[in-house]
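Hi W., the manganese (II) ion complex you wanted:
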Amino acid sequence: MENKTVKQTAKAPPEQALNQFGKNNQLKEYHEKRDFNATTEPQGNKRKKQNQNKIFVVQEHHSKRLHYDFRLEHMGVLKSWAVPKGIPESTADKRLAVETEDHPLEYAEFEGTIPEGQYGAGTVTIWDEGNYETKVWNENMIEVTLKGKKLLGRYVLVRLKKGDDKNWLLLKGK
Ligand code: MN
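Structure:
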């Protein structure tokens, strides 16, 4: 009969050991792309208080090509899309929104210049920010009600199934 002790040495499973910032390693890609000795972007160490309203932000990002980064708080990170032509202002507009890596929550407050040679080099300013409510959130469709300073009301993201999985359409709801 084996007399194996159930209690093993407390050792984090590999996926946790890899990530000092969060147990699910959601920010792995974010960290891999950046040198935090060079950029002033946040590393994402902070935890959010419970029961606060969910936040969204749109950041105007003058990098190689101007685009608007649309970010929605979801499960402890900012789900992110790069929208080259900006957030639609009319229900007739359909804008390509390319899914990018999850960002830490405190990125919603980031403004500044990412130095030359760094990922996303260029200036970032907050174009709009506020809270939002989720109507639908599934693999292929997200519908939210934004309460920002500029953006108010329903917005819908629909994943384009054909072609690149990371491509979505961003629409303004009626
Ligand atoms: Mn960007």
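Residues 53 and 131 are 6 Å apart (CA to CA).

W.
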